[in-house]
Amino acid sequence: MNPHNIEMLNKQFNLDGQLSFLEVADELILIKFSNTHGRGSLTLQGAQLLGWEPWDQEPLIWLSAKAKYQKGKAIRGGIPICWPWFGNVESNSDLPAHGFARNSLWQMKSVEQLPDDAICISLQLMQSEASLKLWPYRCELTISYMFGKNLEIELVSSNLDQSDIELTEAFHTYFHVSHIEHIRIDGLDSVQYIDKLDQGKIKQQNGSIVFNGETDRVYLNTLNKCYIDDPGFKRRIGIEKSGSLSTVIWNPWVEKAKKLGDMDINGYRDMVCVESGNMASNSITLKPGEQHKLHTIYSIETL
Ligand code: TA6
Fold first, then answer.
1. Which run of H or of E encompasses 293?
2. Helix or strand or coil: residue 141?
């Protein structure tokens, strides 16, 4: 049976009407869901969360007003899953940036009612002939999103191969903010980072991160919880993580936003990416049979 049959999906994963599946542009299947904590949506393509809006808050997650829903291409915004590599592969420019997981069709695995009216939606990515051509390893990938008072996400990589597998990965999370020039990010003081806009130089963070131009940094060897302090929305977003040694901070600013093509010219003002993962010198090596869990908890504190 086609695992992407809308009727079957709505029957099997309805969770008493809290989830509904619909086909949008270009055969993309969208899952819409809501509970007493909020409402959201995600696509089967990339298992990409497109939005999460707690009822009493501004949306937590940003989605571009010019997002394009194209088969096989990541949608601008939400939480693209960068896996099994982060960024570009130096040795092979033909390989897609940020890996193939975010462009691939995932399958529903389960939906579950949790305590406190939270819901858990789990999906899995099976290797395909196409993906094996890009990356010749048998590795199962599952993701679980838990929508409650907080938003929790867990990505589990399982090495089903006979050889060691090296991974880099990240939740490429676009957070919605009141104005990029009015926020600051705390939690990375004194942490070393790669400045991707200054020839990859290694620098050290001094105090909070504030934004006055394009910013693209990979903070290394840090387990720290970060905070987005947003006085405009009268809130602090907490970004707690485990199984992650790297944190990426990114905002494209004006010129890069123009080049992206799927972001409004001023879209950069309403978002900031704080990406929990493992990359550069923090790559992960899984031996045959080993698993790795990348886990984040996003919370909101009203100021
Ligand atoms: O996470 C930051 C980054 O690696 C930037 O360098 C920029 O390329 C961004 O990801 C967006 O990448 P994408 O392939 O989604 O346009």
1. strand 291-302
2. strand
Task: Report the C-alpha gap between 252 and 77 in whole angstroms.
Answer: 12
248 lines ligand 1 (CB under 6 A): yes
How far apart are the CA of 230 and the centre of ligand 1, in A?
Answer: 23
Maximum separation of any 2 CA atoms in the chain, in Å: 56
CA of 251 from ligand 1 middle (Å) equals 9
147, burial (CB in 10 Å: exposed 0-12, middle 13-18, buried 19+): buried
Rounded to two decimals, what is the model's pTM? Answer: 0.98
Phi, psi of 200 (to 5 degrees): 70, 20
Tell me the HSE value of 246 on the side-chain side, using a 13 A CA sphere: 22
Residue nearest to atom 9 of ligand 1 (CA): 250
Q: How many CB atoms lie within 10 A of CB 186?
A: 15
Helix (H, G, I), strand (E, B) or coil at 228: strand
Q: In this structure, what token pair is assigned to residue 112?
A: 């579950």
Q: For 86-119, write each residue's pLDDT tens digit.
A: 999 999 999 999 999 999 999 999 999 999 999 9
Residues 85, 141 contacting (CB under 8 angstroms): no
Radius of gyration of the chain (CA): 19
